[in-house]
Write the structure tokens for this entry.
Amino acid sequence: MRVIAARPEYQITVEYEKNRLFYQNFGQMQQAVSLPDYLEDWTRALSEVRPGFSILSDMQVVNQCNQALLTIFQAVEQMIVARGVSMVAEVHVPGLSTRRGCDGVTTAQAMPVRHFLTVWEAVQFLDDVGVEPALVPVHAAVLR
């Protein structure tokens, strides 16, 4: 894995072998009023993956964020969709409002998102669906 961005509010890493980005929010995101490097960090991260990539998004810590940041989150989502994301696996803690906040962003662009309670479940899911069609042996493709 290679770290693309490590900020007080979030971290983005890339796993080249799996064509996957890992995004994690930290507690400081709850008080953030601006994210000056967010678009640039995502632009750099998206340049490191091929179309058909997946994202593992760990949203367990943040249960709210500044609504003024919604525009920047939606702009990043548009970039993610345009780059060709195949699936986003979001991890949320049951009972926290993180999922509702994320749904407010992701429903705008119809990004393919599945929700999980643990990072392990999300990784397993992405690993199971993460085989790119061009890399699937012919006999395996027929069985699906």
Observations:
- Confidence is low (pLDDT under 50) at residues 133-144.
